[in-house]
Design brief:
single chain, 267 residues, alpha+beta, Aminopeptidase, 5 helices, globular, acyltransferase activity, transferring groups other than amino-acyl groups, Acyl_CoA_acyltransferase, GNAT_dom, N-acetyltransferase domain-containing protein
Length: 267
């Protein structure tokens, strides 16, 4: 099964229990592997359940599912009319497209994730590094789970490509996510396996032989080069002062630095 055979759509309110079941299975697996990422039972607690329900109502919660192909062909990875089509593995691909008669959702959950924009948790995690305002210039990916039977099929890069398109559409600059710092396996995966693009900025001075330039780059030429990369950039760790839990932070700059009104990181 290839990336083009998955769609990404908003979670429906009636899928709340199924969505939570995926989270709970992931929490149970983490506990069995001695990974203190999530605690089983947490997502069924009333407060957390309501938080997830609110995210679904706000259309910030998503499901990835396989596509049912008809006539043996599915050249466009598209969703039903109520769905959002997943982007291709290239972040520069077009925005979510409309429905196609050649495919439909299967009803099987392959993966889930949620998006935050200005959540207090992300402010706590990122503002010490970026400052009180710059942390808002991003879309934050949370509760990302790929079901075991669908792991290794390129779903995570497809999710990140989908979010990268949203970053551009929403006028943001960064995609960010985090995980527990004591999960080296997941940290390595984010650093090495989450392919995408970054924009490298260089400032080449046309008068580099002019000793009177005195560091003035007004005659320089800013060049932007889009590079395909294999992973996200890890931006250090942060320990929650209330819980003592340490988190590793990851990001990718999506919009060219010269197009961003404020820069909070070097790509």
């Amino acid at each position: 099964m290839t990336q083009s055979e998955f769609i990404i759509r908003n979670t429906r309110p009636e899928e709340l229990d199924a969505y939570i079941d995926v989270l709970e299975r992931a929490a149970e697996w983490m506990e069995s592997q001695n990974l203190a990422q999530w605690i089983p039972g947490t997502f069924r607690q009333p407060e957390t359940r309501q938080h997830i329900a609110n995210a679904i109502a706000q259309q910030n919660s998503f499901i990835v599912e396989p596509v049912n192909t008809m006539n043996g062909s599915n050249n466009n990875s598209t969703s039903s009319s109520s769905s959002l089509s997943a982007s291709s593995s290239s972040p520069s691909s077009s925005s979510p497209s409309s429905s196609s008669p050649s495919s439909s959702s299967s009803g099987t959950i392959a993966a889930i994730f949620a998006l935050n924009y200005e959540d207090p948790f992300d402010e706590m995690l990122w503002s010490p590094l970026l400052g009180p305002d710059h942390w808002k210039d991003a879309i934050y990916v949370h509760r990302l789970v790929v079901e075991p039977s669908f792991q290794g099929k390129g779903i995570v890069p497809q999710i990140l490509a989908f979010v990268e398109n949203l970053v551009i559409e929403k006028g943001k600059t960064f995609l960010r996510l985090d995980c527990r710092a004591n999960n080296p396996r997941l940290r390595k995966f984010y650093r090495e396996k989450c392919r995408g693009k970054v924009v490298m900025i260089s400032n080449e001075n046309n008068n580099n032989n002019n000793s009177n330039n005195n560091g003035n780059d007004k005659d320089g030429v800013v060049q932007e080069q889009v590079l395909q990369v294999q992973g996200l950039e890890e931006r250090g760790t942060f320990r929650n002062p209330k819980t003592g839990i340490e988190y590793a932070r990851f990001e990718r700059r999506i919009v060219p630095a010269s197009s961003s009104s404020s820069s909070s990181s070097n790509a």
